[in-house]
Design a protein that fits this description.
Layout (H helix, E strand, L loop, with lengths): L2 H7 L6 H11 L9 H7 L4 H10 L5 H10 L7 H4 L8 H13 L1 H4 L2 H13 L2 E5 L5 H12 L4 E4 L4 H8 L6 E7 L7 H10 L3 E6 L12 E4 L12 H15 L3 H17 L10
């Protein structure tokens, strides 16, 4: 998670010296070399203030904070690196890497955890979905998988009043499912916090093992994507969408089987016999 997102989502009040420390941190072009003592000197405060600020923001210490700060200043990546020049662009190599990512999916997300998340969705009255624009295809796939089960799905906008208008009906029997691939959307901390305040449930789908999102969602599904960190596809997030649909269906096959039949009947009724959903 980026340091800027952590600061923006923190509900803690900050002293004048802590605000100076944050200004120094955000203005540093090479955060990998930062140490607490020099930061304190530049902010005209004590080293202990820098360490306490890190802990106040939810970090275990300054090195943990620095790791997030580095995510705000990524190394420039060449076009060739982005297009698998090192890992191989041939179809066979690419397919092998994606297959390997799929094979290890269950080691990241055990079936018991998947069923636990599926149970929360099964019990929800309305499912709200949120992601960045780049992750929209995975979100759209998850929305369709859930609608095939007869669930009420609200796809949240990317921000502003449109997002607020769609989210305002969120209640204690609602659930928020969000994607945070590479980076969390800047609005996500506030959405998770608001979902919790309203008594609802939140699920975060991420691709960064060891990821500590703040504030913590009710459920966190984390699975690494391909081995090439600069060229990741949406195959793993989409596979998670299908896996959730299957897990939910098998919680109550009679209920969801009846929904599937009803979808088929309505499809015939409106003249969609050539596009009857069979899955």
């Amino acid at each position: 998670m980026s340091f800027r997102t952590v600061v923006a989502s923190s509900g803690k009040s900050l002293s004048a010296s802590e605000k100076r420390v944050i200004a120094v941190l955000l203005g540093e072009p090479e955060p990998s070399s930062l140490r607490a003592a020099p930061v304190a000197a530049r902010a005209q405060t004590h080293e202990s203030t820098v360490v306490r600020l890190a802990q106040k923001l939810g970090y275990s210490g300054f090195p943990d904070l620095r790791a997030d700060l580095e995510r705000d200043n990524p190394e420039p990546v060449t076009a060739s690196a982005l297009m698998r020049s090192d890992t191989g662009h041939e179809l066979a190599v690419f397919a092998r890497d994606e297959a390997r990512a799929l094979e290890r999916l269950s080691s990241f997300i055990p079936q018991e955890q998947l069923v636990d998340v599926a149970t929360s969705i099964h019990r929800a009255r309305v499912v709200y979905l949120f992601s960045k624009a780049d992750e929209r295809p995975a979100l759209d796939m998850l929305a369709r998988r859930l609608r095939r089960l007869g669930l009420v799905v609200v796809e949240l906008g990317l921000g502003g009043k449109d997002l607020a208008e769609r989210f305002v009906s969120f209640t204690e029997d609602s659930i928020l499912i969000a994607f945070a691939l590479r980076e969390a959307p800047s609005q996500l901390p506030a959405l998770v916090r608001e979902a919790e305040r309203r008594g609802g449930t939140s699920i975060l789908i991420s691709d960064a093992p060891g990821y500590h999102f703040r504030p913590a969602p009710t459920h966190l599904l984390v699975a690494q994507r391909g081995d090439d960190s600069e060229y990741n596809t949406l195959i793993i997030p989409i596979a998670i969408a299908y896996a959730l649909q299957l897990a939910i269906f098998h919680l109550d096959p009679d209920r969801y089987g009846a929904v599937r039949d009803d979808i088929n009947d309505v499809s015939r009724l409106v003249g969609g016999t050539d596009e009857i959903p069979l899955r």
